[in-house]
């Protein structure tokens, strides 16, 4: 089996991405990065998901709290007013560039030439490092910056959810037979691990299941829209 490194945050999108990689016949190497995010409950979710979908799971510690600049890594309130048109304060500076660089390093070392990331450019919070232009540019970088790329091995960066809505992603989880209840998406979970129900991630997640006409297995502290 060909190997593929999949960035696995523990959220619904990364779970479905790992499921797609496995369905396509890849031996999934799941990479989770503990970057100091306040929603660390995702790390437990990632472990549970990796147990179902991956042959190997690596967790790397990289404390981006030292840089700050985001509500996910600093002492900034997570916005709860709904998804807006501007890039929100939950954007973590250059996060996907950093995470993909780590995934690329593992890929090259493991002899894998495929990387998967669960970014989405439709129902999302407007992060610049989720856009198709970014994915294309990073793939070019991967093939310029590595021994494998220079020697003709060639890397492919897959973003299978890029053009999906959250409803599409929820349906895909069902089609793949995944337990969406294992995943965790909230930016500001309660102390007992429930989704807050009010942040962008919770609103988009709930919207996806509702529009897909599927039961939402998420434990919310406050049901979005109520």
UniProtKB/TrEMBL annotation:
<protein>
    <recommendedName>
        <fullName>7-cyano-7-deazaguanine synthase</fullName>
        <ecNumber>6.3.4.20</ecNumber>
    </recommendedName>
</protein>
<keyword id="KW-0547">Nucleotide-binding</keyword>
<comment type="function">
    <text>Catalyzes the ATP-dependent conversion of 7-carboxy-7-deazaguanine (CDG) to 7-cyano-7-deazaguanine (preQ(0)).</text>
</comment>
<keyword id="KW-0436">Ligase</keyword>
<feature type="binding site">
    <location>
        <position position="196"/>
    </location>
    <ligand>
        <name>Zn(2+)</name>
    </ligand>
</feature>
<comment type="pathway">
    <text>Purine metabolism; 7-cyano-7-deazaguanine biosynthesis.</text>
</comment>
<feature type="binding site">
    <location>
        <position position="186"/>
    </location>
    <ligand>
        <name>Zn(2+)</name>
    </ligand>
</feature>
<dbReference type="Pfam" id="PF06508">
    <property type="entry name" value="QueC"/>
</dbReference>
<feature type="binding site">
    <location>
        <begin position="8"/>
        <end position="18"/>
    </location>
    <ligand>
        <name>ATP</name>
    </ligand>
</feature>
<keyword id="KW-0479">Metal-binding</keyword>
<feature type="binding site">
    <location>
        <position position="202"/>
    </location>
    <ligand>
        <name>Zn(2+)</name>
    </ligand>
</feature>
<dbReference type="InterPro" id="IPR018317">
    <property type="entry name" value="QueC"/>
</dbReference>
<comment type="similarity">
    <text>Belongs to the QueC family.</text>
</comment>
<dbReference type="InterPro" id="IPR014729">
    <property type="entry name" value="Rossmann-like_a/b/a_fold"/>
</dbReference>
<keyword id="KW-0671">Queuosine biosynthesis</keyword>
<keyword id="KW-0067">ATP-binding</keyword>
<dbReference type="GO" id="GO:0016874">
    <property type="term" value="F:ligase activity"/>
</dbReference>
<feature type="binding site">
    <location>
        <position position="199"/>
    </location>
    <ligand>
        <name>Zn(2+)</name>
    </ligand>
</feature>
<keyword id="KW-0862">Zinc</keyword>
């Amino acid at each position: 089996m060909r190997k593929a490194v999949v960035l696995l945050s523990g959220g619904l999108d990364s779970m479905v991405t790992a499921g797609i990689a496995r369905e396509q016949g890849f031996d999934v190497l799941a990479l989770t990065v503990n970057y100091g995010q306040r929603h660390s409950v995702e790390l437990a979710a990632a472990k549970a998901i990796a147990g179902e979908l991956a042959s190997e799971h690596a967790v790397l510690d990289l404390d981006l709290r030292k840089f700050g600049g985001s509500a996910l890594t600093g002492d900034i309130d997570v916005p709860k007013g709904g998804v807006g048109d501007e890039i929100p304060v939950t954007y973590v500076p250059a996060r996907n560039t950093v995470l993909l660089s780590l995934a690329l390093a593992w890929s090259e070392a493991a002899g894998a030439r495929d990387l998967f990331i669960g970014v989405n450019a439709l129902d999302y919070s407007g992060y610049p490092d989720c856009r198709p232009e970014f994915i294309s540019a990073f793939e070019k970088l991967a093939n310029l910056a590595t021994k494998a790329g220079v020697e003709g091995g060639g890397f492919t960066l897959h973003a299978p959810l890029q053009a999906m809505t959250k409803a599409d992603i929820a349906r895909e989880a069902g089609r793949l037979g995944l337990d969406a209840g294992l995943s965790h998406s909230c930016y500001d979970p309660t102390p007992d691990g429930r989704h807050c129900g009010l942040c962008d991630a919770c609103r988009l997640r709930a919207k996806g299941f509702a529009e897909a006409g599927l039961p939402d297995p998420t434990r919310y502290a406050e049901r979005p829209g109520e």
